[in-house]
Amino acid sequence: MIEILVVLSIIAIILALLSPTLFRLAGRGDVTETRALLVNISASLKAYATNPDYGVFPPTVLDETFLKVPKSGRFKPNDTNLGIESLVFHLTHEDYVGESPFSEEERFINTDDDEASVALTWTGDKALFEYADAWGNPLIYFNLADLTAGTSQQFRVTTLEGAEVSVSPAKSSKFKNSFAGRSDGFQIISLGPDGEFDTKDDIHSWSVTGSSSEIEDDEENEEE
Ligand SMILES: [Ca+2]
Ligand SMILES: [Ca+2]
Questions:
Q1: Is 208 helix (H, G, I), strand (E, B) or coil?
Q2: How far, in Å, from the CA of 80 to the mean position of ligand 1?
Q3: 77-135 per-position pLDDT tens digit
Q4: Distance 27 CA to ligand 1 centre (A)
């Protein structure tokens, strides 16, 4: 009996020593996974915009005129999660021919609890869905063509916990009046492990794809 207790307590001590490392490794897995998700969505967006049927990136705010649903009371969006709701709608729409980057059904969430008058996705659910990062918070999406770099533009995101977070398109680190990743034409942002906006752990589409070139920004600025 005593021997068993000794063995159990040794195991407990070993687990206690290991757990911070295990937690850290698990956290790193979430970051890796979310980075991969942003890479996949970016690739889908580029394919979307080069498809002659679309020609542009999905809008920053879901445009009612695009919806092929009865005109009356089409949807009741509130003013949060706008970008990601538009992105999810356009890349899961029945007319969308590309491969959806949104592969996990449990990641479709509706933290702000808004809905359309008819189901807009294959789920048959009227919810205006967002897609979650590895920590369960909605991703953030901006079509940069919809925005003006020189003005302050605030949007809001409702987190998994129900907190409303104020978000805005990120500016270039070099040129305050231009957007980060503007050569991509869009921004996708994850709030990261801390669930807060504009903190060090945020994950950005333009940094994970490596396609945002500060040199390109530089050249364009010189031309202006
Ligand atoms: Ca929603
Ligand atoms: Ca963050």
A1: helix
A2: 7
A3: 678 999 999 999 889 887 788 888 999 999 999 999 988 777 776 677 888 899 999 99
A4: 26
Q: Which of 192, 204, 216 is nearest to 39 (CA)?
A: 204
Residue 176 CB partners (closer than 8 Å, separation 6+):
none
Could you give phi then psi for residue 165, rounded to 5 degrees?
A: -110, 130
190 CA distance to ligand 2 middle (Å): 7
Ligand in nearest proximity to the CA of 79: 1
DSSP state of 58: P
pLDDT tens track for 68-85? 555 555 566 678 999 999
**Which residues crowd ion ligand 2, with CB under 5 Å?**
191-192, 194, 196, 199, 201-202
Query: Which uninterrupted H or E stretch holds 214?
Result: helix 214-223
Domains, the chain: 2-223 (3.30.700.10)
Q: Which amino acid is at 145?
A: A
> Which residues are CB-neighbours of 115 under 8 A, at least 6 positions away?
75, 76, 126, 127, 128
Ligand 2 centroid–CA 216 distance in Å is 27
Q: What is the pTM of this model?
A: 0.80
Could you give the angle at which helices 2-50 and 82-92 cross, rounded to 10 degrees?
70
